[in-house]
């Protein structure tokens, strides 16, 4: 956000909310305990001195850098692709509304145009509910005709059936002689785009990063962290707990963030604001169609999407 | 998957299924044996002390990082591009079904529309069978007319012939006066997309990452791992086997994963779920066409693609 | 810029303007003070010697490289995508002007064409003002009819309503028999592009890089820098302040740059020159339409965009 | 290839064919000789001891990683883009064949359709011969009319003239009343794609990675390798030759691979299989057109592209 | 270039032309002098020993790797995008020529077609001259009518006005009844592509990589290099000058290359061959239009673009 106030560099060090620190605190605590114990026994386990040093850990840096770097980039790309798809949804529903308003030969305030706009809004909510596995019936009831609500209730791929409805709406206009084949093709082009969006979201939701990667990264990070106290204790003594927890924090926090954002359609703090985007789409389409925008859809003062 | 239960960080350390550990265990065992032997003889081979140290291995880190990083990224891109192509298949077959239902002047429940939908489903299975080199005749027999099945049996590029059949189907509609040139062009645009998908899959399947890369990476990893015990034994003594096996595990496991996913159309654990996607396409197209969806196509409770 | 004079390599070391040095100077000063203090007490805090060495900091290099590298790339991509969107705005408004001049059957100097060109210019300024949250009414008043200015004043998504106006303008031409469906579809294609640009800019403006990343990077960088004097003092003595400030400068300056460019639509020194681009668009469209270009829009000698 | 047999990890260490080892063996031999010499004189040159150690070489790691990583990625992208362009050639020639068969109002087995298909096949071979600077006349003679062969013989941009012929073929159909403007535009869209492919291949073939990069990388790698023995001899003694040759092998082999694949249209072992792809295109188009596919075009058992 | 002779690996070490060595030689000389001086005084400045060692420089490696890696990638992307845009220019002007020859109902050798082809060639040169800020009037005079030359002389955005002329040319054909709306739309699609190319080139030319990055990288590299002798002198003695100059060469040479290629439209050795590409476009379009290609446009034996 452009006008988001820059945070003071000092205060930012102690941010609690919006940090993943709370989630990984227990593990860091355990790591701290172990480090303190290792310092206490001077790196000995029973009688045996564990002979480790930092050089051995440096060799593991290559693997760690590749695993963490890859998983971070792949996860962020999934997050950003999800955001792009929902941005495209805003774009395409607006384009379709503009086409319905100016290319179908219908007056801008006719009920037919409004019913098409409602199909677009219902499509948006249907996609949101499918991705979050929540119940869309409430949104459907306020936007669609009872028959259509009934028909959708049994369907598995609800947004796709709404797309078919839009196709039928255009065909009705064509049969009534208001829309010719060329305009139909232009609208159909944008319906194809909506189909792309549904398919793109389904792809992200249904195909995670291969699980094997996660296991491999996870094991490497944790084994590395829990062996590290033995590697540092000889050279940095009682500073070992501090440095081990510092290193552990960077790795565990990164793993924690990417696990959140690699499934961008969920409801965790760093996931996409699907609710806010859906409401923005509804507000924008209603405004275009000259409708009153319900107050609930107006952005709060600090609302992130405008 | 959004509702996939997050795993406990501790349990995840001991995952067996879905890890590549079983596949590389023999090699790791060998590496362990050698390391133990090296510790036992204190890094001597016969009379000679092997004078290696960690610094020499650090110099190899640059090459290792480039080889592993490159191969990992290139392989994952192949995997993800394969997934995108199959996602596009779902998208485009749905778009074509919508066009057949709403733009061809045919009633939605006419047998002509259904026969077109069946061509699309058969196309999906034909592509799957071509990529996996399996026999498509069973799927063809339940979906296509006997003459077409017979004609396809002799063909080398089966999905392409099915695309031609779709083109002919549209042309028949045009000759019957139901479809005009504009609608034909709009449908043809989506047939071009299907052609893109076939070509894209064939490209991935027929052009692996140049084999020379694999040889170079493979040699570097294994030579590095089997020399490493001599480099560590002087500084970390009897911890050498643990650290060597740890380092070896990270490198060998990564090589093992990327070898699986760089050929994404196979049937190994981390390959794409082409069966599940094909069934989803069939279910979705039948639902759009108002057909009964066979029970076998309904997703199991833990089915990954929805 | 091609003719930008290359700077002498020596002078470039002492550049002040256009560097982020001023912004981070206080922090670097603090870091310098602490370093000098650490050297003075020889790395002791009260009675205790802080036992740190460079090796411990090398282990943190992996995390630092990933965090800084990722944030830098992601921010620059946002910056460059924002620039691409505004470049596309220049491209598409020119294409629409060309279409209005040569495909609508209107003479090139007719008031209708000029009013369309003004809609395009107003659209450009509307987007700029929305992204910077400034008041567009002055620009609207010099470009649009009073009724339209009034209508836009209440609207939340102003550029979108201007797009609808353009659609209506085309439809008017169609109803007057000057434009057929095909030309309408060709113009509509470019209106879709404008819709893409609005949506793309909104996406960048409303969805920052997840805040958690920034916190994680910020903490790692600062904790690293402020611990570093203790790690270096034993080996490089009174050179510690120099090296610590040098390292701190590279990290803090990078963090400072990326924080500027990741919100590319702002008004900080490294943000995009939206004013200059808007004026270039206005000048280019007026020139195409054969209009006199106001002197204020002509580039100054060192104007960056030509 | 999916069914490509996975190689045993142990055997793969000793692969000879398909490795770049033969090409760089002389240089590695020279490096071995020098290393042995350095060990023999204990790092002395005449009377002077060369005082180098591994730490100095670690500092060069950053530059080496950037140079090698960049050149490798840029070269592989060129290789893969070349492959994508030839994949697109397969896709677009198939799409054009489908259009000729089903949208031009000609019976599928008419000589006009076949002559168009032959233009497409000739286009494929013309592009291959242009990229490899070989003589296309033999392929032209078996596919095209004598006049066209004669006309092409003098031309510099042969594939482009064949594209113009295809445009003329379509125009002839339009003048005969079999093709309307819309179908012409749909075919023209695919002809544009073929134009893209020619231009894309010419771009890769005519603009190598700036030569200065290669010189810089080359010098850095070789100077590094030939200085390395002096840096290692003090710490690892008679193991120096082994480690130096190992490090040298990784760098020189990588440079050797990328030099091959950055010009993907050549005829070196790792270049693209343009012959095989051309034959696949010919076979696929003939099959679509219902023609007998010559036996020579059928894939051998281990043929890579299917 | 495919047939470019591979250079012998040994000779390539001593390449002078096409290397950036000459440009940075003075700086490297200065660095050499300083290093020799540091060795001479054994790292002392007046009475004080400068206590630096390689470990402190290793910590700077992270920042250096990020700065150099980023700037190199971003610059090369600009270079390659510029090349892609000029490749697209070749592609689109050819496509438009094909359309003018086969879709406008004009005989291939009519003066109208030739005048359109000349507009395309003039457009190419106009873009080249705009990007290099050179005078296009000579090229305009041999290609365009005197009135148009006069009209363009006063214009600021010359290629854009030529695009408008092309639009007018098509409209003239439509008014004469030779071109229908559909063909007009197909040609208009390619005119949009030309508009994209102009806008893309202007974007690269007018928006450099933020200057702050360059300052930051420049300072880091030079401070690093000039401090390095003090860090190495204790451990490698009189080899210090060699290693310092080697390290300095890699960093300074890279900075020098990227500064050249990040402005790809200039006339430095590694910039794009805009003259050669423009001449290739002219030759290719004239050949397509059946015109005699002037001898000056024929490629010399070693001409890079074919």
Q: What attributes does this structure have?
A:
homopentamer; mainly alpha; 2 strands; about 0% strand; disordered N terminus
Q: Could you explain how this protein is built, in words?
A:
Mean pLDDT of chain A is 90; it is low at 1-5 and 301-306. Chain A starts with 20 loop residues before the first helix and ends in an 18-residue tail after the last helix. In chain A, 55% of the residues are buried. Chain A contains eleven helices and two strands, in the order αββαααααααααα. Chain A has 306 residues and is mainly α. Helices cover 69% and strands 1% of the residues of chain A. Chain A is elongated and about 90 Å long. In chain A, strand 1 and strand 2 (48-49) form a beta hairpin. A two-stranded antiparallel ribbon of chain A has the order 1-2. The first copy, chain A, has helices at residues 21-40, 54-59, 61-102, 111-132, 137-143, 146-153, 158-175, 181-206, 211-236, 240-261, 274-288, and strands at residues 44-45, 48-49. The first copy, chain A, has a domain at 82-208 and 273-292. In chain A, helix 7 packs antiparallel against helix 8. Chains A and B meet through helix 2, helix 3, helix 4, helix 7 and helix 8 of A and helix 2, helix 3, helix 8, helix 9 and helix 10 of B.
């Amino acid at each position: 956000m452009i006008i988001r106030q820059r945070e003071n560099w000092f205060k930012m060090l102690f941010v609690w909310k919006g940090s993943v620190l709370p989630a990984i605190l227990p593990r860091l605590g355990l790591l701290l305990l172990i480090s303190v114990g290792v310092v206490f026994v001077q790196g000995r386990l029973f009688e045996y001195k564990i002979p480790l040093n930092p050089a051995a850990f440096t060799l593991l840096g290559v693997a760690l850098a590749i695993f963490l770097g890859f998983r971070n980039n792949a996860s962020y790309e999934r997050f950003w692709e999800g955001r792009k798809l929902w941005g495209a949804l805003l774009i395409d529903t607006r384009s379709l509304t503009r086409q319905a308003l100016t290319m179908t030969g219908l007056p801008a305030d006719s009920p037919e145009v409004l019913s098409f706009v409602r199909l677009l809004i219902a499509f948006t909510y249907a996609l949101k509910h499918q991705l979050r596995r929540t119940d869309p019936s409430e949104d459907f009831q306020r936007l669609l005709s009872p028959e259509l609500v009934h028909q959708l209730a049994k369907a598995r791929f609800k947004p796709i059936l709404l797309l078919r409805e839009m196709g039928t709406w255009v065909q009705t206009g064509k049969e009534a002689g208001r829309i010719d084949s060329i305009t139909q093709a232009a609208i159909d082009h944008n319906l194809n785009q909506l189909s792309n969006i549904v398919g793109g979201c389904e792809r992200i939701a249904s195909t995670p990063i291969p699980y094997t990667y996660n296991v491999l990264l996870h094991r490497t990070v944790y084994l590395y962290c829990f062996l590290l106290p033995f590697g540092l204790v000889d050279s940095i003594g009682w500073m070992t707990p501090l440095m081990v927890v510092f290193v552990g924090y960077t790795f565990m926090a990164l793993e924690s963030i990417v696990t959140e954002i690699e499934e961008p359609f969920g409801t965790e703090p760093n996931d996409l604001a699907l609710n806010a985007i859906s409401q923005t789409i509804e507000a924008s389409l209603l405004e275009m169609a000259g409708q009153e925008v319900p107050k609930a859809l107006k952005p709060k003062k600090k609302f992130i999407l405008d």
